[in-house]
Amino acid sequence: KPYSNLFYWAHAWTPGKSSKIGLHPHKGFEICSFILKGSINHYDNKLNDWITLDEGDVQIIRSGSGISHAEEIDENSEIFQIWFIPDLSISLYENASYDDYKKNEFPVESNKNFTKKIIKGNKSPLSMNSEKIEINQYKIYDGKIEINTSSSFVHSFFVIDGKISLENQKIKKSDFAIINDSSKITIKSNSDSSIFEIKSPLIPSYNVNI
Question: Are 171 and 163 in contact (CB under 8 A)?
Answer without folding.
Answer: yes
